[in-house]
Amino acid sequence: MKEKQLVLLGLALVILVSFLDSFAGVMSGYEEAVQIRDEAGNLVRVGEDGSLPLQAVQKGELTGSLAAGQVLKVSLPMGEIDLSGVKEGEEGEEGEQGEQGVGAADAAQLQYEVRVYGRNKEVAQEYAGRVKVSLRPLSGTPGASGVAGTAGEAGGGLELVVDEPPRPAELKVKVVVRGTLPAAARVDLENGYGLVRVTDLSGPSTVRNGYGPTELGRLAGDWSVEADYSALLVDGIAGDLEMRGDYSEANISHVGGDLTIRSDYKDIRVADVRGDLDVKGDYGSLQFEDVAGSVTLDVGYKDVRGDGIGGDVRASSSYGDLRLAGLRRNVEIEAEFAKVDLGFAAPPDHRFHLRSRYGSIADDLSVTEERSAGSFEKLREGVAGRGQYRVSVETDYGDIHVWEAAARNR
Amino acid sequence: MKAFWRLYRKDLQALQFTMLLFSVITVAWDVFLFTRVGKWQEGLPFGLSFIPLAFLPLWVVWDAIQSYRSEWNSGSIYLMLSLPTSGWKLALSKLAAVWTSFTLLSLLSLSGAWFIAMRETGLAHEIMNVLQQVPRGFLLSWAFRLGLAYWLSGLATALVVQAAYVTSRLVSRGQFFVLLGAFWASAYGLLRLGGLGHYLFGWVPDLEFTALEVGPEHVRVAETFLVVDSGILLGWALGLGLLYILTARLLQQVVEV
User: Fold this and answer.
1) A177 lies in the same domain as A65
2) pTM given for the model
3) pLDDT tens digits, residue range B87-132?
4) Which of A157, A178, A327, A357 could cross-link with A70 by S-S, CB 3.0 to 4.6 Å?
5) Cβ–Cβ contact B215 with A under 8 A
6) Which of A12, A29, A211 is closest, CB to CB, to B216?
7) CA nearest to B232, candidates B205, B193, B203
8) C-alpha to C-alpha distance for A103 and A84, rounded to whole angstroms
């Protein structure tokens, strides 16, 4: 047989074998292709989810006193924080025996767990035993004993301190903090990685979470939340809420004051804001309903749908479409490529100025007339009712559509 | 060796047009991204500047095929095969030319990404912040290893594609299907030889790389090691060597024009 035919026959055989072989462990030899080993050469076994196994847990309880308005500060590189407020007179744990000056009303009662993950149980247990968790007065807090001032004294508070010795590289540590605080206490929480949950506490307070779910509910006062790569859930803040975070989905409802959002890349849903709504961010989407105050939007690539706006609207958008319904007062919108869809609560009482350079204008209210404008520009102006409020919409390439919105059942 | 260098220069010249084309596209793309710094989302121009680098392996496939196809199309294959030059020189000169082109274009793409990164001052500041936490020796060795892995992957791609193309030239009809079949068979062969290498070369010390931990707290060099089975790598090297020998043999003895 000629060499050429031999080569082609060999090729055909290899292809045939490859198809048959796919049932017979074709990845044999690759089981240990890449491994993780420690300095001693021991294999580091990882769990199915890629994490190290839990090897040791140190548990404990801490109590302290927090007067109304005082702050509990917790800062964890990785862990869980779950705190709730207890109102005076509500069922709660009694003040501990022998602690002078600490009544149930002021009591901060925390349970903590130091969880150590690693491949070597002895090393993990030895390390867990050397981690110290304590409550210390915040600087500026009266009293060196660690007992905070009497109830009613503002300023100062407590700080949860985690003293870790130098950590071997093969260990990971997660600190879980749960507990109850006086409902009038405030918090300053920071978590690098993990869950943060806060309910029934007061502001002004701050929550920062680098990566993980963040849940806030039934909170008094003003709150500030920074959450990246987090799923944020807020249900009930009596005062103002400021939210900053990228790559975080957010579901925010029942804000008694103003709501300010600075967020990119994820979807945001807002419902029931008694104050003003101010959103700045790109990408993702924004849906909101029932905002009693004014709405300010600076959204480059974010699609926006809103309904039920009690105050003025000011918005600018590049590519994100705007669909707003239930408009009652002044509206000022600048858009480049975005479609602008505005539904006005009946009966409209507005002066309209609608201009689009290359897009179309549709007026279902039939209150505007076409005016002369530059080439390719379209301009429609008109008055509905007494023209008490002003509507100004300008787009480059986006279409404009105005219509009368049906009344919503609130 | 004189013959080899002459062939190498000739093959490199034959790739001039594709090199120039890719360079122009890359430079135009990078200039465009340069003008977008400050106007687009921070980090986006820098991220997009790596598109040419990601596209380069496909370009290597094209170059590797063209390095032989152009000989057949232009008729110079007759001269090439009639020369008193061994097949291994012919195969090596074409492989070296494609690899050189790949190297130069990779450097061009990386340079563009570098300039854009430096222009994005905020991003550059963040990157420097992270890099400053990493020991310089660790940084250099990882950069070298990653660069070497990418560079060798270009060589492997060129070798496999050239072997497949030369094999397809054994037939006068259905060359495309033979090309695909040869490519498939090469990939399968390399996969199997890698696995066999794990057993055959188990006595060879494995490659160890110090691991880097990037956590919420900080960046640190961990005291754990990423261990890569050197037997598998040697198995692949053996397979690529065999493919090269096959290509040379086919050119010297088997391919008819």
Assistant:
1) yes
2) 0.60
3) 888 899 999 999 999 999 999 999 998 888 888 777 676 677 667 6
4) A157
5) yes
6) A211
7) B193
8) 18
